[in-house]
Structure formats: C-alpha cells, structure tokens
Design brief:
31% of the residues lie in helices and 35% in strands. It has two helices and four strands, in the order βαβαββ. β3 and β4 form a beta hairpin. The chain is globular, with a radius of gyration of 11 Å.
Length: 75
C-alpha cells in the first residue's frame, strides 16, 4: 500500500505509539496515508479506538512477523 509517511514505534510501550502517530498525522495533509509499525500488544485495540476518536480512517492493519502494521488516512 502506498503511504506518505511512516512511524516506527517498534519496542515502544503505550502510549508512545499513539503519541508518535498523533504527532506525525498533525504534519500531514488531508487524505495522506501514514504507516505505523508497533510491537506493543495493546496497539491492536489502541489504533482502531484512536482512529474512531480522532476521525482519521484506519484503512488497513495486519502483521509482519511479530510487528503490528497500521495504515491510517489523515482526515
């Protein structure tokens, strides 16, 4: 999937992956896509909730080995 920016939150614990994501999205234009890589097990629940709360769209999620991958589209 094409994306314009990436956040590497591997090894970070909650709430750092969400905080880094929020900061990255703030610098992006509407419609751009952000890829987030995280290993915190709570991220699987945190990112859908974050997207719903902020109005950004979680367009895809999955795993690459033990790394969780999320794609968010900026509102």
């Amino acid at each position: 999937m094409a994306f314009q920016a990436e956040v590497d939150a591997i090894g970070m614990n909650c709430p750092l992956p969400i905080l880094r994501t929020k900061k990255a999205l703030a610098t992006m234009q509407s419609g751009e896509v952000l890829k987030v890589k995280a290993t915190d097990s709570g991220a699987a629940k945190d990112f859908p909730a974050f997207a719903k709360q902020t109005g950004n769209e979680l367009i895809a999620s999955g795993t690459e080995g033990d790394v969780l991958i999320f794609f968010l589209k900026r509102r």
